[in-house]
């Protein structure tokens, strides 16, 4: 699988940044502002309009599992109870 990011957050507006994700398990780490959250948010919700210029090849052959802030908010956080 290859992820191509363009025109989103810290990624270039004019050319694709390509990231190979061919391994069975891929772990993303890096400095703040490097784009880790952008990648995980893409896999969490690729239909989001923020990712209209981004692409991923062979994504149907994979089942990305995303555990990020958005996942926690959607599945564990109750705004009425937690403040």
TrEMBL record:
Residues 9-81 form the Protein CR006 P-loop domain. InterPro entries: CR006_AAA, P-loop_NTPase. Pfam families: AAA_13 (PF13166). This is AAA family ATPase.
